[in-house]
Design a protein that fits this description.
Blueprint lengths: L1 E6 L16 E5 L6 H7 L9 E4 L2 E2 L15 E5 L6
Length: 84
């Protein structure tokens, strides 16, 4: 099923080179794929996966293993941000 994965800041390095400019890549994932399974399949380091939004709604860490993706979903992920 088709979904869109968006990775921001330095996580965009985990996207294919041609997708880094837009920070987004269209993916075809199996039915019943969870947010956690997709994160793992893209080899994103867990300590760098901080803010996760599914269709604009926050997905807390404890829910990522149970939240399944559906066709057309947009999953956006940000790393921890530090600044001053």
């Amino acid at each position: 099923m088709p979904i869109t994965l968006k990775l921001y800041a330095f996580l965009s390095d985990y996207l294919p080179a041609e997708a880094r400019r837009s920070n987004a890549v269209a993916l075809d994932v199996p039915d019943e794929t969870t947010v956690a399974a997709l994160i793992a399949s893209r080899a994103l380091p867990p300590r760098l996966v901080h803010l996760v939004l599914l269709n604009g709604q926050f997905v807390p860490p404890q829910e990522r293993g149970a939240r399944t993706l559906t066709a057309g979903d947009v999953l956006a992920i940000w790393p921890p941000i530090a600044g001053g």
